[in-house]
Write a structure and sequence with these properties.
Elements lengths: L1 H4 L6 H17 L2 H10 L14 H16 L5 H12 L6 H4 L1 H11 L2 H13 L11
Length: about 140
């Protein structure tokens, strides 16, 4: 939404109101969890982050969130694994994880019709939150 309403071609008062609401929501949100969700997504893999956000800062976020969710400390080995994941090296490289193969499988099987079926199933299911924003 931020990207959409940052467009200077749209009406300024509307954009200002929506962006203000987003900023207020983001300030109250658990930002660490959202940042880590983007980082830990294999396809995004932290690429949108500024290089100013150091891997140690992200590790500290992960440590903080882990402690809060599980009420225990991370093992020291997690740090090395986390740094390798962040850098995309070793077993966390795209080649080692086979991401190109998974992407090809996804592209072969996903169609607009499949997505519409998925949305219908999700909307009628009590397992997930409402996805009304897809309309």
């Amino acid at each position: 939404m931020f990207y959409i309403y940052s467009d200077s071609k749209l009406e300024a008062p509307i954009c200002t109101k929506i962006l203000g609401s987003l900023e207020k929501w983001w300030a109250a949100a658990d930002q660490d969890v959202f940042i880590l969700a983007i980082l830990l997504n294999l396809w995004i893999h932290g690429h949108p982050f500024s290089k100013k956000l150091l891997s140690m800062n992200l590790f500290n976020m992960a440590d903080h969130v882990f402690k809060r969710f599980f009420s225990q400390d991370l093992k020291f080995a997690f740090m090395a694994e986390f740094i390798d994941y962040y850098k995309g090296i070793g077993k966390f490289s795209e080649a080692s994880m086979g991401l190109e193969g998974w992407k090809a499988k996804f592209n072969e099987q996903v169609s607009v019709q499949n997505l519409l079926v998925l949305v219908t199933v999700l909307k009628t299911s009590n397992l997930l939150f409402s996805i009304e924003f897809l309309h």
